[in-house]
Structure formats: structure tokens, C-alpha cells
Amino acid sequence: MAEHRGSLWQAARAVFWSFFGVRKKSHYEQDAVQLTPVQVIVMGLASAALFVLILLGIVWLVAN
Amino acid sequence: MAHDATHAHDDHGHAQPSGIMRWLTTTNHKDIGSLYMWFAGIMFLIAGTMALVIRAELFQPGLQVVDPEFFNQMTTLHGLIMVFGVIMPAWAGFANWQIPLMIGAPDMAFPRMNNWGFWLLPVAGFLLVLTLFMPGGGPAGGWTMYPPLFIQGGISYDLTIFAVHILGASSIMGSINIITTILNMRAPGMTMMKMPLFVWTWLITAYLLIATVPVLAGAVTMLLTDRNFDTHFFNAAGGGDPVMFQHIFWFFGHPEVYILILPAFGVVSQIIPTFARKPLFGYASMVYATASIAILSFIVWAHHMFTVGMPATAQLFFMYSTMLIAVPTGVKVFNWVATMWKGSMTFETPMLFAIAFVCLFTIGGFSGLVCAMTPVDIQIHDTYYVVAHFHYVLVSGALFAIIAGVYYWLPKWTGHMYDERLGKLHFWLSVISMNITFFPMHFLGLAGMPRRYADYALQFAEFNAIASVGAFLFGFSQLIFLYLIIKAIKGGQKATDQVWEGAEGLEWTVPSPAPYHTFETAPVVK
Ligand code: HEM
Ligand SMILES: [Cu+2]
Prior knowledge:
The structure holds two protein chains of two kinds. By secondary structure, chain A is mainly α. Chain A is built from three helices and no strands.
């Protein structure tokens, strides 16, 4: 566990699946050793912001 | 609850005060945990009595038992005390008792702050009860403290605001303590992803508290200055906006409902694997789902305000976000069911309450989804349908999980098994009477009966009578629980260290009752 080599992309995928609430075991085990807490938290907040933007986009589509 | 153990194990040198001073000055996490639990229990009896006053008045249409003014004070104080004086302190009690035991720490990180955090609570509880004896009686504006009512009332409204400030300070101290303990004091080998789920849910809850309690404190401070110092934050006549209070309150309020329920998810995730004799299905998913529920809980607040007037786009946004937050919540329910699937299950009282939690909390989740649909909510907002919704998630959700947790860990706390026969009686009476009380409220709400009124139209009479009978049955059934706890403290069959055949985790490696000091040398987790 000396080195964390998780990419941003990997953090994004972990966070995406967590919004759904499910994560494949082998992937989760990779996450657990490769991702740092900071990566996950920053990606979590960024994804929440993105989530808000997507919802606003859908609302805009529906309302117009 | 640990005091029998104290004297037997109190062999560590420094003298300890006895009697009341022992409890006033204690810095021991088990003592403080017990104090929190007893406080929650006493407040439960007070707020429960208030609920029975409400149901007695609503047994029949017309006014029989209390004045309408007093009725409104009862609904307000019942809600405030149950949320801030019962469920939250009970979870803090579990945190104090269990988190150090579950992560292999000798105590909480800040023992003196722990003492102070607890002893603020009786002060706040006293203030809330005191309001009833003030001129004009207690606060009557609802537990949500909305202006303009909360700006207009008398001295008891100031006392309520003060009590909320104190409760908030206590919650913040508790949260800092819990976060620091979990992040810094885990036994060697206890990595984050090995932590019991109860510890995880509390860690996330503590962050939610730190993020939202200051918001509530700000909102009530603005009420206070509006009341006493001529500001006009919420006064339209002075250029303020009463709806702004609702936005600020619910920005706190919705995360708050998750503060009440996340530790419940944790407890249920401890109990079901033990009695199904299988590891928790999808441990990592559960952690991830809890984290995303916490984040998403900040972007749904206006679902409490669909009727106050907002742009259609905002209504759509909050409708969508609210419906989506139900996804990770639903995943948890699937995980609990999958844990039980093909397990070798036994049905001791903690498991019965945990299973009831899974079934009945889900009903509350679904009625929440019904409320989340804006056009539907415009019909049912402020009716008994909403009352039914939040009592399913709070009584058969949070409260049942608290009861389940008490039965589960009581043998560890007291050293004695509780009376299983009486426990089952308590379970069946509770689960049946809970449904008799709250299920008819769905029908009342759909038929249009508004909440928070002392009187109602004749067509609502039958369901109200049924609900009142259920409420009294539920209330008195809880006395069995009190009796069972006292009985187990006093004596009974000796509990083994492991207590439950399928139990796993550090807390089951120490003797029962847990000695006054545990894990003074850290255990090693493989
Ligand atoms: C699936 C998840 C949930 C959804 C979709 C949901 C949705 C809603 C909605 C839309 C309302 C507003 C209804 C109205 O006033 O017209 C509401 C009220 C409420 N909910 Fe939920 N809810 C959920 C879970 C929970 C949980 C877990 C709790 C607490 C443990 C909770 C506690 C409350 C409370 C206390 C109120 C009423 C507040 C008041 O006006 O006094 N809900 N819920
Ligand atoms: Cu809400």
C-alpha cells in the first residue's frame, strides 16, 4: 500500500457506482488499495456538483 | 449501567468520587454512554406522554381533554423533544458505549469534552420542559419553529431557542469527539474498510452534524434577533422573508433526518449478520451508499416546501433529486434481505426488531416517494399522510433500531441476558400497536385531514379512534421494555463474552459486563 496509483478515472467510477450504491467486489478491492481518501472526497463533491448540473439540464429540457 | 462493574474493576490507582459526583465528573465512555441512554429514556417518557395527550384529544371529534392552545404546545414539544432529546441522545449513547469497544480504543479521544457534551443535555431538556410553566405556556409554533408564529410568542419561545443552541453545541462536541476517535484511535490492523458498519455510519453522521448544526444555530439566532433586537430577517413588513427561514431550516432539516436514520442503518447492519450467521452482503456497497446518501441529502431540502411557492423548475429539480436519493436507500434494503437469504436465521428479540425495521422502514420510504411527487404533495402536504410517513421512518425506523440495539448489546453492558419471553411480548405488542396507530393516518391524510389541529370533521372519527387506541397500547407496551432493562441490570442469567452465537467483532472479545476499562493495550486486528 506504499503507493497509491489510482487514476482520476478510477475515482470517478468508484464514486459513480456509489451513487447507485453497488460496487463489484474485485473493483472495490482495487479501489481500497489504489485510491486515497482525498481523491474519493474531492471526486465525490465534484460528482455531486455534476449531478446537480445534470438534473438542472433535465429540468431545463422538461420545462422548455 | 456499568456501575456494578466499576467497583469490581476499579483497581487502577487514582481515587474516584462516588455517588452523584461520580456521574457528574465521569470521563469514562461507558459511564457517559449510560448517561446518554438514561437521558434519552427519561425524555422518551416525557415526550411519549405528550403524544398520548395528543391522541387522547383526537380520540373523538370536538374538544374534550385539553385547550387547543395546549394541544399545539404538545405537538410542538413532542416533536422537538423526540428528535433532539430522544433519538439523537440515544445514538450518542450507542456511539459512546460501542465505538471504542468496536474499534479497540481505550476511550473516546476527548473524555472531558465528552462529559461536558453530555451534561449540557439535561440543561436543554430542563429548559424545554420549563417552557410549559412560563406565562402563555410552551412554544406552540410546531417543531419546525417557522416564523411568523415563532417570532410572535412569549418568553417560552426564547427558552426554546436557547435550548436548541445548547443542544447544537452538545452535538458538535459529540461529533468532533467521534470523528477524532474513529480516525485516530483504531487498533492496529483495524483499517477503515474493516470497521464495523455501525462505526462507519456514525462517522458519516458526525460529518453531517458538523455541516448542518451551525446552519440550524444560525436560523434560530436570526429568530432570536428578530424577536429581541429589531432585526427583520424573517419579517416581511421590515423587508425580510419568512420563506427564507424555511429554506435555511430544511437545509438543516433534511440532512437531520439522515442523522436520525444513518446510525439505525448501522445497528441493523450489525444485527442481521449475527442472527443470519452470514457476513453482511455488500459491505463496501453499504459504505459507499451511506456516503452518497449523506452528500445527496443536501440537495433535496425544498421537498418540504412544495406548497410555499417556487418556480416550476425548482419544483422539478427537488422532485427529481428526492426521488433519486431513494436509490442508494433501496440498495441498502436489498443488501439486508440478501444477507438473510439462505442464512441460518434465529429470531431473538434484537433480530425481530431488525426485521421489523427492514419491512416497516421500507413502507416509510415508499410513502416518502409519494410525498416527493410535487403534484401529489400539493394535495397531501400538511396532512396526516405526512405524519404517517415520518412516523414509519422514525418510530418503526429509528426507534425500532434503537430498541433492537439495546436488546443486542444489553448483555454486554449489564452482564446479564434480558428476559427473552418478555422481550418477544414487547416486540409483538410494539409492532402491532405501531401499525394500528400509524397506518390509518395514511387514509386520514389522503381524505384531507390536516395535521396540527385539536379538532376535526366527523368523517375522520373512526380512523382517529383506531389510531388513539393503538397509541395508548404502544405507549404502555414500552413500560415492558423499561422493566426488562431494569431487570437485566439487577440480575439474570449470566451472559457469555460472545453473547450471541453468530456475533463477530472486538466488542464480543471482552468480558460481559464490559469492564470499566477496556483495550488499555490495543488488540491487534488481522
Ligand atoms: C426514501 C427516502 C425519503 C423520501 C423520498 C422522503 C420524502 C419526504 C417528503 C417529500 C417530505 C415532505 C412531505 C410534506 O411535508 O408534504 C417528507 C417529510 C418528512 N420526512 Fe421524509 N423522506 C424520506 C425518508 C425519510 C427518513 C429516513 C426520515 C427520518 C428518519 C424522514 C423524516 C421526515 C420527516 C420528519 C418529515 C416531516 C417534517 C415535517 O414537516 O414536520 N424521511 N419526507
Ligand atoms: Cu426531507
